[in-house]
Amino acid sequence: MRPFKYSRALNTTNAVRAVSGNKEARFLAGGTNLVDLMKEYVERPNEVVDITRLNLKQIRATSNGISIGALATNTETANHPLIRENYPLVSMAILAGASGQLRNMATNGGNLMQRTRCQYFYDLAMPCNKREPGSGCGALQGLNRIHAIFGYSDKCVATYPGDMANALYALDAVVRIAGRNGKERTIPIQDFHRLPGDTPEKDNNLEHGELIVAIELPKNNFAARSYYLKVRDRASYAFALVSVAAALEINGNSIRQARVVLGGVAHKPWRSLEAEKALVVKSATEETFRAAAEAAFKDAKPLAHNAYKVDLGQRAVVLALRQAFAAGAAQ
Ligand SMILES: Cc1cc2nc3c(=O)[nH]c(=O)nc-3n(C[C@H](O)[C@H](O)[C@H](O)COP(=O)(O)OP(=O)(O)OC[C@H]3O[C@@H](n4cnc5c(N)ncnc54)[C@H](O)[C@@H]3O)c2cc1C
Ligand code: SF4
User: Fold this and answer.
1) Exposed site from 173, 186, 196, 258, fewest CB < 10 Å?
2) How far apart are CA 171 and CA 112, in angstroms?
């Protein structure tokens, strides 16, 4: 590992100042992604600012929902009674990720910021525009079984690998940020991650040095009837090939509101407005769920090795919607 300066931030202002003043500096939270990347020489910060002592761990009710601290661990968040009772989709998504030990260390802010699992991104011998802008994309003509089928560019076909963000997107979450000018700002979760375009080195719309302080989950009528389905190569300790965050508001047997967000298919969580349109004001039947699944993948553009994601994804959407519907019936 390259030598680097280590410091511990005692408050948010100092943390933001330290990182925003040095392009090569990085925040260190649970370290489960950053330290791995440093060991692989993919990330080479000359300064690491430890933020784990900041007072950003609370999970609390607000007038309009729940606020989750950026430094609450994934385990604390998934198991918190407020989250389990009001936003079970978030618990399910977190618990579908990584392993118990990793979730004990991983924080919510770090989870949103985790980087792609594209193999070429980790392999310094291969070209990768995300790691080294302008070098090319190894995956485009290479092995792209785990890569995107939506929203990619000729510069990058990677997917965002996280689970929690898919659930947050389905629930209209907002990310609260300590800005570089000392002011807080918010980014709706749908605008947090970004598509690769010509600048795949940028995973999201956070400016360098900006610090995630909390994630706000608003009250809504579809959070209770929800389900997170993740399909992967192994039952644990593996990233999604395809995942589905589904949430429904039901009136009688009719679907009043729906959310369908897909993971493992794009450079950001991929909300399917087409699937939602196929669901709303329809009866909650298998036929409707199948129509939504077809609509969700109608515009998919698979690469050489990942056409299987279309069929797999459609089946996953049907199953997730069925489970979401059943979850509400059980209450
Ligand atoms: C083997 C393995 C399997 C995994 N499987 C899954 C999985 O299935 N699903 C899944 O979702 N995840 C999975 N993960 C990823 C894991 O969830 C992330 O590594 C973890 O959530 C990152 O959180 P952290 O606190 O450790 O972040 P760190 O590693 O400390 O930081 C990650 C990045 O976020 C930045 N950062 C951290 N906190 C903030 C903040 N508050 N504001 C701004 N920037 C910040 C850091 O500077 C760094 O760039 C897996 C990880 C491993 C190692
Ligand atoms: S898909 Fe993106 S991350 Fe993977 S090699 Fe291409 S540019 Fe790099």
Assistant:
1) 186
2) 15
Residue from 291, 295, 289, 290 nearest 271 by CA: 295
Is the beta carbon of 120 within 6 A of some atom in ligand 2? yes
253/160: higher pLDDT: 160
Model pLDDT for residues 106-159, shown as the tens digit of each residue: 999 999 999 999 999 999 999 999 999 999 999 999 999 999 999 999 999 999
CA-to-CA dists, residue 27 to 38, 51, 63, angstroms:
13, 6, 30
Residue ranges of alpha helices (H) inside 192-258 are: none
DSSP state of 55: S
Atom of ligand 1 nearest to the CA of 96: 8
pTM of the model as a whole: 0.98
**Ligand 1 within 6 A of CB of 228:** no
pLDDT tens figures, 253-302: 999 999 999 999 999 999 999 999 999 999 999 999 999 999 999 999 99
**How far apart are alpha carbons 299 and 321 in whole angstroms?**
20
Average pLDDT of the chain, as a whole number:
97
Tell how far the Cα of 202 is from the centroid of ligand 1, in angstroms: 16
Nearest-atom index, ligand 1, CA of 240? 8
Ligand nearest to the CA of 69: 1
Q: How far is CA 177 from CA 48, 171, 289, 290, in A?
A: 19, 19, 37, 39
Q: Ligand 2 pocket, 226 CB below 6 A? A: no
